[in-house]
Amino acid sequence: MSPLARRTGVALVAFSALGVLGCGHRETHVAMLRAPQPSTGHAVELYLVDQATPARPYFDIAIVQAIGFGTDATPEAVARALTDKAATLGCDAVVRASIDVGYSRAHAAGVCVKYLGDGPPGPPAVLPPARGTNPTPPASRPAPSPRIEPLPSAPNQGR
Question: Which of 59, 61, 64 is nearest to 35 (CA)?
């Protein structure tokens, strides 16, 4: 192998490794309960499990789920994926939504609903500011190693 080919191969591997470090992606899944509805053009409202559901009457369209991996494993990323998917289905809101965040994966799920009539939009979403990237994991301690002790039947053992 020529030195130029070797340097090119090493550079390609290094570049690929750098690309993988910044990887993150989101998946969305849907369980349809009714046919998709025409979009209203309004922003999709998000109501978490511990919040009161909207006072307006509505009907369920689908159960939506979003999973974020790597750099997209943040509450903001999965909440955005959840509402974006709900908007494509013609939903006005996602109710009873829950968000779980782990170290390298985040999960959100809720019920996509359509309002029965016109009415005032819900309050604007209040999300905490993005905290940046995930923290680095804590340093691990070295594993303990056993101490070798002399056998009682051979106390000297050449020492």
Answer: 61
Residues 6+ apart with CB under 8 A from 156: none
**Alpha-carbon dihedral angle through residues 111, 114, 119, 125, given to the nearest 10 degrees:** 40
Q: What domains lie within the chain, and their CATH numbers?
A: 24-115 (3.30.110)
Give bridge partners of residue 30 from the DSSP assignment. Answer: 64
Tell me the residue ranges of DSSP E strands in the chain.
24-32, 45-48, 58-70, 93-101, 105-115
Amino acid 79 reads A
Give dist(CA 70, CA 103) in Å, integer. 8
The mean-pLDDT minimum among 33-37, 81-85, 115-119, 121-125 falls in 121-125
Residues present in the chain in total: 159
pLDDT at 18: 46
- How far is residue 84's CA from residue 80's CA, in Å, rounded to a whole number? 6
Q: What are phi and psi of 112, to 5 degrees?
A: -85, 125
Output the six-digit token pair for 130. Answer: 């993005």
> pTM of the entire structure?
0.62
Instruction: State pLDDT tens for residues 109-146.
Output: 999 999 987 766 666 666 666 677 777 878 888 888 88
Cβ within 8 Å of residue 53, ≥6 positions away:
47, 95, 96
